[in-house]
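Q: I have 582 residues here and want to know how they pack in 3D. Can you give me a structure?
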Amino acid sequence: MLNIPGLIAIIVFYVLILLVGLWASRKSKSTEANPDSEDVMLAGRNIGVIVGIFTMTATWVGGGYINGTAEIIVSSGLVWCQAPIGYALSLVFGGVFFANKMRTEGYVTMLDPFQQKYGERMGGLLFIPALLGEVFWSAAILSALGATLSVIIDLNNTTAVIVSAIIAIVYTLFGGLYSVAYTDVVQLFCILVGLWLSVPFAMTHEAVTPISETLPQWIGHLDSKLTGIYMDYGLLLIFGGIPWQVYFQRVLSCKSAVRAQLLSYVAAFGCIIMAIPAIFIGAVAKSTDWNQTDYRLTGQPIPLDPDNYKLVLPMVLQYLCPTAVSFVGLGAVSAAVMSSADSSVLSASAMFARNIYKLIFRQKASEREIIWIMRAAIFGVGALATVMGITIQSIYGLWALCADLVYVILFPQLVTVIYLKGCNTYGSLAGYIIGLFFRLGGGEPLISLPPFILYPFYNETDGQLFPFRTLSMIFSFLTIIGVSYPLKYVFENGKLPRRYDVFRCIVNIPEETIALKDTCGEMISMSAKGKSPNGEINPALKFSKEDLLDEDSSPSPMNMSPTHQPLEPGPKAAEANKVSSL
C-alpha cells in the first residue's frame, strides 16, 4: 500500500532540489542573446571554494557509493569495502598528477588533449568507453533509486525512476554545471544528515545485536587465493577513478590550477567521511535478526537472500528506524542518486556536443548551436539512462564492464597524452585495441561473457583469479609506447618515406593540423593562453603554411586536428612547437 506521508516527504524534497537547480541556473552568464557553451559546461570557470568542495565530493559520493558500501559490508565484510579508500586515493592522485596540468592548459573536456594530439577521429573512438561508463552509471543508480522507493514508500519502480530522472534532467537542462554544482551542496548535506540521523536509531533497535559483539561477521576476511582479485579491484578503483569526465569537469571549472588540486584533496577526505555512516548501516544489517522486524511480513527469505543485499540500506531505514527518520534517510538516498545522475548526464552531453558534434561534424558551429545540441544530448542521455534503468536487469554488470574499460583503455591513454609527448595516433589506436582485446578475453560473468583467455590460476569454480584487468591496462600502456616511439624514430630519421605516415601525425602533417586555426584557439579554451584583452586570438599564435611546412599534404582520415607532434623544419618551427605545447 502506498505510503502517503512518505510520498509527501519525497515530493517536498524533489521540489526543493528543483527550485535550487532553477535558482542556480540564473547565475549563468550564458543567455540566448549572448550564448556561451563553455560557461554552461564549466560554470564560467568560477566555482567557489565551498561549492567546489561539495560538488567535487559528490563526484563519487552517489547512490551507488552509499548503497554499495552498505551492501558489501553485508555480503563480504569491511575488508572488501575498497571503494571509500580507492576513490579517495583516486582524487588524491588525480590532484597530484592531472588536475594542475589539465586546468593549466585550459581544456574544456577530458577528451580535448586527445583530439588535439591524436585527431578528432581518435578522440571520438576514446569517447565511446567514456560515454558508456557515464550512461550505464546513471542507469544503474536510477534503477537502485527505484528499488529504494519501492521498499520504503511502496512506490511503483517505473514511476520512481521516471520522476527522479525528469527532475535531474530539468534543472541540468536549464542551468548546466551551475545547477548541478549548487544542487550538489543541498544533496550532500541531505546525505550527511539523513544517514547520520538514522545510525543511532538503527543501532539501538531491539532486533540488533551490538556491532561490537558481531565484529568478525561484518569485518569479514580475505582468502589468500583471492589476493589477485583484491589487488585488481583496488587498483581499478584508484586509477580507474581518474579518467572520468565528471571529475575533470569539476577540475576544469575551478578558477585556478591550485584550487583544482585543493578541491581534489579535500574531496578525498570527504569521501571517507561520507562512507562512515553507510559502513555502520551495513554492520547493523549484518547484526540484525530480521525475524524480529516487520520484514518477516514481506514473505522474503530470512536470513537475507543475496538478491536483496543491494537493498540493505533502505531496509535498515524502513524496518529499524522510526517512520520520520526513515523518510529523512530516504531523502538522503534520493539526494545521493540525483547528485550522481545529473553529473553523469551533463558530462556525457558536454563531451558529445563539443568533442563529437563540433570538432568532428560541425567545426564552425556557433555557440548557440552547441548549447542546443548539448541540451538535446542531456535529454537524450537522460532518457536512455532512464529506459535502461527500468528495463535492463544487468545494469550493474554493464557498468562494471565499462568501469573496467575506463581503467584498461582510458587511464593509460590519459597518462601518455599528458606526460609522453612522443606518443602518437598509431600508438593510441594500437593500445586501445590491445587493451580491449585482453580485457574482453578475461570474460565478465555479470553479463554472461565467457572468457577466451585463461589467465594464470583460472579455474571453473572461481573464474579468473589473476589481476588480468591491471595486466590488460599495462599491456595497453606498453603498446602505446612500443608503437609510438619506434614509428616516430623511423619517420623522423627518414627510414620510411613520408607518404607512409598515413595518419598524418608524425612527418606527413597536413596543412589543417599545423595552422593554429580558430578550432585550436577554442581547444585551449578562450580563457587560456594566447588571448588578447579584447578576446581575439593573439596574432603571435598564427603561422602561415610556409613558416611551418615544407610541403602540402592532404587531410588524414584519422588525424585532422591541431597536433603537439614535432613540426617539420622551418623558420618558425621551434616557436610554433612551443605554442603547440601549450
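Q: Anything worth noting?
A: The longest helix spans residues 157-203. DSSP finds 22 helices and no strands in the chain.
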